[in-house]
Each structure stands twice: as C-alpha cells, then as structure tokens.
Amino acid sequence: MSFQPVKFYQTGTFTVGNRLLAPDERSVQASQRRSNSISSGHRACQGCGEALGARYAIDAAMEASNGQLIAANATGCLEVFSTPYPESSWQVPWIHSLFGNAAAVATGIAAAMKVKGKPEVRVVAQGGDGGTTDIGFGCLSGMFERNDDVLYICYDNEAYMNTGVQRSSATPPAARTSTTMPVGPEPGNVFGQGKNVPEIAMAHGIPYVATATVADLRDLEYKVKKAMSMHGARYLHIFVPCPLGWGAASDATISLARLAKETGLFPVFEAENGEVTGVLKIRHQQPVENYLMPQKRFAHLFGKNAHPETVARIQAKAERNIRKYGLLATEEN
Amino acid sequence: MLKQIEGSKAVAQGVALCRPEVICAYPISPQTHIVEALGKMVKGGELTPCEFINVESEFAAMSVAIGASAAGARSYTATASQGLLFMAEAVYNASGLGLPIVMTVANRAIGAPINIWNDHSDALSQRDSGWLQLFAETNQEALDLHIQAFRLAEEISMPVMVCMDGFILTHAFERVDVPEQAQVDAYLPPFVPRQSLDPAEPMSIGAMVGPEAFMEVRYLAHAKQMQALERIPQLSAEFKTIFGRDSGGLVRTYCTEDADTIIIAMGSILGTIKDTVDEMRAEGHKIGVLGITSYRPFPLTQVRDALIHAKRFLVLEKSLAVGMGGILATDVRMAVTGTGLRGFTAIAGLGGRPIYKSSLHKLFRQAEKEELPPNTFLDLDWNVVNKQLEREKQMRRSGPIAENVLHDLGIVSAKFG
Questions:
Q1: What are the chain B neighbours of A37 within 8 Å (beta carbons)?
Q2: Residue A241 in contact with residue A215, Cβ under 8 Å?
Q3: pLDDT tens digit sequence for B243-286
C-alpha cells in the first residue's frame, strides 16, 4: 500500500510553514540564533543565488558544528563581493588563497586541526563552478581521493560570472556567454558531453555527495547537516541562478532554481559511498521552455530565428536525467 | 651526533628536529629523498604529532601548506625545478599572506629541454616572490639552514626557501653533525602565528586589496626582508652559541682581505672555487672568494664591503637571464655601484654541466688580467652552437634544437669521463 507522509505546505507555495512545525524541525534560517555567517552589506548583485546559497549552507554548517567552523574560499564572485578590503562579511574564520586551490587549502586546515588535537573544528571549502569544475578540479580530486575531512561546496551558476560571464565546463549547451556568443550555425555553447562533477565525485567513492538548489531551503539545510554529520571528503553541489549572467530578473532566482529541478535539467539527489541513496522527485514536471524562456542567455532559441531543434535536444537531456535518476514520482513512492 | 649520511637524509633529520606539524609531499627529483625520509619518520611514529600528506601536485603541496600554516601549524614542503614553477602562483600567495612556511628547493634546471640536473634557474625564477632564499654550501649547512629558516620565517612571518644543489648535495654522502633535539628546542621556540584561523576569534585572511593599499602591503613584504637582513647574522651567531659551528649568515668571505680579484658564487660550487683559489694562492695570486648565503634579502652592504678593497670581481653563477646575462651578477653590480670595480660574469654549470678546476684556473687567470668579455659561458661547445646557428640560417625546417645539438654532439658519455 502506498504511503504518503503528511506535509505541511503553505497554500500556493512550496515552502514549509514554520508555524506548523515543532521548533526543532524549523529551518536554521528561521532561527533568530542563526549565525549569519555571511552578514548583510556585502556587494553581491540583487537576487544573487550564490550569496543566498552560501548563507544557507554556511549557517547550516555552523549550526551543525556548534560554531566550530573554518572556511576556505576560492577566488570568484563570492570572494570578491564578500571581502572588499578592509571589509569582510564573514563571521566565520575565513581564508581566500587562490582560484584553483580551495580544496587543498582546506586540506591543510583540516590537517592542522588534526595535528593540534581539535577534532571539533570542522572545515568547509567553497567555490564557484569555475573554481571547482575547471581550475580547481585537480586539487578537488586530490582532496576526494585522500578522503580529507573537508566538505567542499560548489555554488554552480554555470559560468565565470566574476570575470564577465565566460563559459565554464559547467555551462549548459546552447547558453550564451561572453565566450559562446549566439552567432553562427550553432549559437551559444556547444552540445558537449558535459562534465558532471557530482558524478565524478561519486566515482571517487567519497562518503557523501549531494546536489541541491537555493529553491529548496530545507533540502539544502538537510544535506549540509547530513554532510556535517560525516567525516572524510564530502561534496555538495548547489545550483545558484545568476541574474546578471543569465539575463534573468533578480526576483526570478528562486523560481528558476525550482524550474531547473522541476524540468529535470538539474537532478537533485544524494549519494553515499558512490551510490545514489535518494532523489528529490519532480513535483510538477515542466517543459524546458518554461525554464529557458525567462533567461536572456537562451533568448536566441526563441522568437524570430528560433531553434526549436535545440530546445528539443535540451528537453531530451532533461528526459535522460529523469530516466537516469528516476526523478518522476511513481505509485510506489 | 656525527653521521655519514646522504644530504637529503641529513636535511630530513634536521627538518624533523624542528617539529613540523604538517608536511606535504609531491615527488620530483632531486628532492624526493627528503620527503621520503620524513614520510617514513611520520609513519613510523618517530615524528609526532605530524600530518604527512601525499598531494597530487606541487601546486597542491604549497596550497596545503598555506592552509595548514594559516591554521597555525608549522608547515614544510620540498620541491625543485618544474615543481617550483608549477606551484609558483601559490609561492607568491604564501609570501603575500605572510605565512612562515619553510621549503627546501633541491636546485635543478628548468626545461625544455627537460633536464634533471643541477643549476639555480628554479630558485632564481622565484627571487621576486617575497620568499627569503638561503643557499647552502655543504650538507651540514643545508641541515643547519633549515633550523635557522624556521626560526627566521616565524619571527618575521614570511616564508623561507632553503636552496641546496640537486644531486651534488642532496645525493652526496658526507659527514654531517646532526644536532640533538634539546639543542634545536633551545634555538627554535614553538610557533606562535601572527594570524590564524580560529573559530574562537574569527578573522578573514586573504581579502581583496585595491590600489588604495596594495603598495603598502607589498612594501611591508620588502620591509620584512630588510628586517631579515639584520636578523640573519644575529640568528647565525646565536646558532653558533648553541650548536658550536658557523652556519648561515648573509655572506661568507674567504681570503678576501688582500685580494685583488674576488670570485662570487652561491651553493656547493664554492667548494671547488675555494680549492682552485687555494692552489692559485700557493702560486702567489691575490685572489679570494665571496659566497652569498642569503640571496633574498640580498645583502648589498655586505657584498660591497667585501669587494670594496679589491680591483675586480667575477660572478660565477649557475643561472642565466636569457637575453641579458647573469642574474646574481646583476645584483652584485648593484652592490658595487659607483666603486669603479671591474666586474665580469661567468655562466657555468647549467643543467648539471660539470665545472672543472682546470676550467676555473683558466677563467680566474683571465679575470685577473681583465681579459674576459662581460659574459663568459664556461666550457660552452661553440662548435655545436655554431653548427646549429648555421643550420637555422640554411633551412627553414631545421628541426628541434635539442635533438640537433645531441646529434651533433655524438656519444654523450664520451664527453664527460
């Protein structure tokens, strides 16, 4: 017999109402005692998904570690907007070294804590998709392979936003960036085989890999807390829309993140020791057009010189994800 | 305790006596024996508490050291050649952040053509990185300099590179006095970082700095090196009181008091140079030697003082500023500005080319007579060079240079017996 647990959703939203929950079930963000690890006043753009993701993630990690947290940060938007000298938004001990070495710096911090007999102090590393999937990939893989006691968080906004929206290996097919312009017979980014870093992380067999979006605070916090309950190398890949780079309205950050998940383009799942242990099901499947059309980076796919065949290929990509991860709810679950 | 051991082992034992807390290792010849020995000590429980991390690249090695040092742990790594260049971005970052990491550089040439043998191109490529650079003449000094390096680095909160000639020192078995732990403990106090990542006292390290403050931050790095210029001789003197031998310091003179001609060099070649000078002295030549131990900071005053009463100097260096000439020579010339001293440069020993006493005898005599061009390339095979130059003149597709040179040279082993 199928079993549907009772969920308390506020009418018309996907947000769980805190009023209806017991205090210990409420989100970290709902608590006045949240650490505000990255405090307001930083210089992120309006509607920045990365700033939101970092606040959710680091506040949750702070709660999980009882405030005993050190963060290493790759160069990128998050670093630049949070620490323009002499200001800093960080209320956690925080270090920025280079673009491509956040994972290794975190390894060093974790080693220092171990040698100094401070096992209670936990370490996170964080970077954007460029700092993670491209230039920092060697250090990331090394950290995974050694199973260093680090939670690495990638805030994926699918391009190099800090330098002016250039393509990264996380940029989706057909997307316009400043180095994949919508000109020529195949406008926008090429259809490559992609570089699925969460799956590559899983291939290392590390204890925990998860994806999340800023659209689902509870799922994100749950995954951070779960990651923090474990030791060894852990990887969290958070989908964070970028209004500037995507040409999207700054109030569309949450809805776009939700659509990425609801279309199947960004599968939200978790995996332990290399095996998928849970997926966040699509609640109301959406055609990819609903996700693509609000973003100017995909504008060349629609309108006067539309490329319906490209949209169809993107839809096929979403369908593959849906099949592969079993993202659609079935009778059984 | 006196031991007959390999240079790398001696350095590893010296480093271990400094109680490093985090060691990162990535293999590159000729430094591998150092980290191998340290790895064994950590794994066997001799060196504890210490985390030994096998990283995936030199870039990661320095980055792990950066994280560990910023978190308050005494951190060490070793590299050479291509490895130093691969970590270059992190090398600058470590000094920019003021992290007192100590690193051994087992000096080796930089390719292409790939070459594993000794010269000073690697370390000198990082001379402006903000790291202090100390050059060891012997294996004893290589060991001793590491102990002084940790003290110096942590005092001024800047990283220190201890440079020792690859293979010539790292793989040479010599008698080395390995200090007692109590001696090292008396000399090197526990590491108290100026800054550290600590949840009890959160701070941000590595903020973005714009034009309003960047020059000041860079100047402060320079100011620290100027402080080191004062501290290095003091630390060397203090070292002598505890360990009973001369080691380190800024420069070392040999027979310079009455010398008309002074030969200047760094590293292990000083031994061969001193032997040559001894022989020439026996024949009545007024010749002396100035060894540079501290290349960064560069001791302009001490170099000038050592040279001022001579008539001429010759810088013999294992490095080449391609398109210009000497690297060390440029700094020495800066030191003697306005003195009217005649200066010559000899580029020697690149990529492990042996430097024979017979060649030095000839070179030094020419220097005495001031018969040298500004730049001399010691024992360069002009036939091979000219042949390749002619080949390139004759045909467009002249082929890969190194392979042509090897072909023209014939059997390599026949050249060096």
A1: none
A2: no
A3: 999 999 999 999 999 999 999 999 999 999 999 999 999 999 99
Q: Do B60 and A96 touch (CB under 8 A)?
A: no
Report d(CA B80, CA B389) in Å as an integer.
31
3-state SS class at B104: strand
**Helix (H), strand (E) at residue B343:** strand B342-347
CATH 3.40.630.30 for domain B2-243, yes or no, is no
How many beta carbons lie within 10 A of that of residue A89, not counting itself?
23
CB–CB of A17/A9 below 8 Å?
Answer: yes
Q: Contact B387/B408 with Cβ under 8 angstroms? A: yes
Other C-beta atoms closer than 10 Å to the C-beta of A191 total: 14
**Mean predicted confidence (pLDDT) in A141-153:** 98
Helix axes A49-64, A253-263, angle to 10 degrees: 80
Tokens standing for B394? 């004759």
DSSP conformation class of A166: B
Listed residue (B209, B306, B325) closest to B263, CA to CA: B306
A108 vs B204: CB contact, 8 Å cut-off?
no
Boundaries of CATH 3.40.50.970 in chain B? Answer: 2-243
Domains and CATH numbers, chain A: 33-325 (3.40.50.970)
Cis peptide before B233 (omega within 30 of 0): no
**Non-local CB neighbours of A192 within 8 Å, separated by 6+ positions:** A173
Q: Which residues of A are less than 8 Å from B97 in CB distance?
A: 97
Closest partner residue to A104 (CB to CB) among B55, B69, B209 is B55
What mean pLDDT comes out for the span A212-239?
97
Q: Which residue from A152, A161, A265 is spatially nearest to A201, judged by alpha carbons? A: A152
* Reported confidence tier of residue A329, pLDDT bands at 50, 70, 90: confident
* Tokens matching residue A127: 């970077």
pLDDT in tens, A13-72: 555 556 666 777 788 998 888 999 999 999 999 999 999 999 999 999 999 999 999 999
Residue A84: DSSP 8-state: B
| CA distance readout (Å), B178 to A69, A228, B3, B7, B149 | 40, 45, 7, 11, 16
Residue where the block lists tokens 């998860």: A210
Distance from CA of A81 to the nearest CA of B (A): 9
For chain B, residues classed under CATH 3.40.50.920 are 251-377
Give A163 to chain B, closest Cα distance, Å. 15
Contact call for B199 and A70, based on CB within 8 A: yes
For residue A112, give the nearest of B68, B201, B204 by CB distance. Answer: B68
Q: Report the C-alpha gap between B262 and B207 in whole angstroms.
A: 47
CA distance A192 to B153: 48
B66, B73, B199: residue with CB nearest A121: B199
Q: What is the CATH class of B251-377?
A: alpha beta
ipTM of the complex: 0.96
CB contact under 8 A, A139 and B56: yes
Indicate the helix (H) or strand (E) that contains A127.
Answer: strand A122-128
Which member of B70, B90, B208 has the closest CB to residue A98?
A: B90
Rg (CA), chain B: 22
Lookup result for tokens 């059309």: A293
CB A159 within 8 A of CB A177: yes
CB-based contact, B67 to chain A, within 8 Å = yes
pTM of the model: 0.96
Q: What is the pLDDT of residue A15?
A: 56
Specify the pLDDT at position B335.
98
